[in-house]
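A protein record pairs a chain with a discrete description of its three-dimensional fold. The following entry can be read in just this way.
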Amino acid sequence: MRILSIIGYLAAICVFSSCATIVGGSNYNAKVMVRDHRGAKIEYQGQTIGIGEASVRIPRKNADKVVFKISEEGCETQTMSFKKRTFRGWSFVGTLFGWTGIINGIPIPWGIIVDGATGAWWKPDISEKGVLKIDHNHFLYNIDYEGCAMKSKNNQIEKPTIAELLRELKKLLDEGIITQKEYDAEKKKILNREY
């Protein structure tokens, strides 16, 4: 009977996560926006995830190892690294008190084990420049892209022309980096001057 109880508890651990994992998940949703560069390509872990803005899921335990590469035709590639994370204290307390089981009178903090393994106690540090919290599961990364050295006579950064943006967008479509649906949506924004 004791073996069946242990197997039952182990099955429960596998089927049900603990407090931090349930409430926030082991990943969080990151929205990335490149200010004033609607045609900038955004890469994460070697994959293009969007043009001008993108969404990606990031493991909470890696919130201090987030790196985006930003590039535009005729400009230098810029790497943006976010190296800070903070501890989700309330999740830890909830896990400690709400997800501790008892086997033969011995408290087993299985929630702490699950959350520790998944890294669910971590989140991006909003004190880091460019990081904003939308809610406990959504964070915004605002990126100032400084890879374009093109300057006009009055020393202002020149915005790319509509033709340049459309050419870059078509190139991304032809290379299979973006889908036809993404191409159509971005083209509409460019033609409506939403950049």
User: Anything to note?
Assistant: The longest helix spans residues 2-15. The longest strand covers residues 27-35.
